[in-house]
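Can anyone check this?
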Amino acid sequence: MAAPRKSAQQLAAREKARAKAQELTERHEKLIELAAEFFEQQDQAEVIRSEAKQKADALLAKAEKDAVSAVRSAAEKVQAMLDAGEAKAAVAARLGVSGAEVKRMVDLVARQDEQATEPAAERAA
């Protein structure tokens, strides 16, 4: 049997090289696509975290505002007890708080009263 011609061997080698190159190109394109999807998902995760942080900050701000309002209301109850003639020590004992805490609440009510009666022009200045 005759040996294959050199040109036939070269043609076969070129076809084999083209097939291998095509395989590598397809693999490379797939990896590029997967990398792009990876970065899209990373960006999406960051957006989700950012939105959640904004919602959490808003929720915490509202909760703090509501808590301050509740503390003011509690301070008004302490002041009402004192206005009813109860001694500070008795109010503190009844509520299970220190005398300093009673004084702090009374001062809070007093500051609120001052701010409520202070003219708007003075507050703006």
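Reply from J.R.: I decoded it. The mean pLDDT is 91.
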